[in-house]
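Researcher: Can you fold this with iron/sulfur cluster in place?
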Amino acid sequence: MVPGDHLTPLTIFYVSPLRRCNFKCSYCVSHQPSITDTLEWHRTEDRAQHQQVVEWICRLPYRVRLRLGSAGEPFVSAAYLNSVVRLTHSANLEFVEVLTNGSWGTAQFEKFIAECDVRKLTLWMTYHHSEITLERFVAAAIQARSSGATVIVHALLFPDNLKAANALKEMCSKHGLTLHVGLGLNINNAYPEGSRVPVLDQEDADPSLLALNVAFPAEVYDLVASPRGAPCSAGHNYIYINRRAEVHQCNTYAKYYPSLMLGSAANPDFVLNLRTDTYYACGTPERCVCVEDYQHLQLVQEKQRIVRPSVIASSLEEIG
Ligand code: SF4
Ligand code: SF4
């Protein structure tokens, strides 16, 4: 038996305080210009606090499936990469899924991967069409896959990148790379004439490309818009940690109900007490804010069958 296999699974979505990025995407979810290529962390104490969170996760008596996001790019920070290495070697980690833009250098990647337990590493690689060439991005994905890591190529569809997204789709098909397609949001009003999902404004958008969008059935989105009272397993088999190390039952509760935080992962004495009942009625009168959260609605949980070491399903078949 692999160490940790007997433990109960727990999914964690941790958005760390790393803020430095080498790209300048206009639609950056971290809201340009808060992204910077000079400051690595939001506050001076963040680097140490991030290490505390990592060690707290490594001590959890659960089989952890970790989605590790940030407001920046992991491969610009040696300290951050070291924390990923540490996580991959933790016995209780089933996998750590790192969100990256794939802009690493070949030698840098080789050094990093040599230090990891690559069997536990998943790279969620988002293609940013304005910042990196398709050839360089796909070469990075192939390098990562050849190293033994799980690779999921993520494409966001925008009005001005449909040709590039199609080319990416073809390259993924040619090289056998797993592709996840989502619809880009109009963050920062990057598309001034656009609606919230600007690609849907395009009459000439390739329907075969739009059909790749990993979208849940409409009834799920109806519930996501107004989840109050709906059974949800957040707080039982899923938690969210924000960049201040606050542990919440989900991202939505962190946003709207900060006072209901479960504790601080930076506090070595904090013991996580998960709810014993699998499902509990959601209490928010607000919208549920992200897929990491709302895939814990009972309506989704009972149909979803993720087949890769990833927190997010990459195909329509996996979400029923
Ligand atoms: S790669 Fe990600 S974090 Fe960096 S600017 Fe683009 S969207 Fe923002
Ligand atoms: S439905 Fe969303 S907001 Fe409600 S508890 Fe579940 S994850 Fe949290």
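Model: Folded with iron/sulfur cluster in place. Residues 227, 230, 232, 234, 250, 252-253, 282, 284, 288, 293-294, 296-297 surround iron/sulfur cluster (ligand 2) (CB under 6 Å).
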